[in-house]
Amino acid sequence: MPAVRGCHLPEDRLYDVENHIWLKEMDDGNIKIGMTTVATAMAGQLVAFTPKKAGRSVEPGKTCATVESGKWVGPAKSAVGGEVAAVNAELVEKPSMANSDPYEAGWMVILKPKDWAAVKPTLTPGTEVGPKYEAKMTADGFAGCAP
């Protein structure tokens, strides 16, 4: 698993580096979405997670959930549009799972994507994400994830 400044970034994901979001294609064609370790490290311990409800639509570049920590409240933006097929109810109950396990238990929503073929090439594969994240962290003045 690649790591940039102590932040783990699994190779089997696609990344929207600008918005600190990972996306993973599922066998059924849906897309699982979550926050990167960079996002959770920058935000701090999450205290609230409010996803869009199942059946609601998400526009590309718009919010699929709102996340809140002690120092930040804001949108989790989805690079791809579509219909919310599932939400992580466990994350609603225990938002800190996004801090402790952002790539497995801490996923946010699953979308039934619209126009995935057009969006997918705009995302950064995990095997190539290191240099982009290094540049983003430098631009944002972010030292990295705590060990």
Quick gist of this model?
With 147 residues, this protein is of the alpha+beta class. It is built from five helices and twelve strands.
Number of strands: 12
- As a whole number of angstroms, the C-alpha radius of gyration is 14 Å
How far the N terminus sits from the C terminus, by CA atoms, comes to 15 Å
Instruction: Indicate the mean pLDDT.
Output: 95
Largest sheet: 7 strands, antiparallel
Q: What would your notes on this structure say?
A:
By secondary structure, the protein is an alpha+beta fold. It has one domain: RNA polymerase II/Efflux pump adaptor protein, barrel-sandwich hybrid domain (OB fold (Dihydrolipoamide Acetyltransferase, E2P), Beta Barrel), CATH 2.40.50.100. Helix content is 22%, strand content 37%. The longest helix is centred in the C-terminal third of the chain and has 12 residues. The protein is globular, with a radius of gyration of 14 Å. It starts with a strand and ends in a 7-residue tail after the last helix. The mean pLDDT is 95.
Features:
5 helices, single chain, alpha+beta, OB fold (Dihydrolipoamide Acetyltransferase, E2P), seven-stranded antiparallel β-sheet, 147 residues
Write the layout of secondary structure elements.
Elements: E1 3-4, E2 7-8, E3 14-16, E4 21-25, E5 31-35, H1 37-43, E6 46-51, E7 57-58, E8 62-69, E9 73-78, E10 81-87, H2 89-93, H3 97-100, E11 109-114, H4 116-119, E12 124-125, H5 129-140
Antiparallel strand pairs: 1-2, 3-4, 3-12, 4-5, 5-11, 6-8, 7-10, 8-9, 10-11
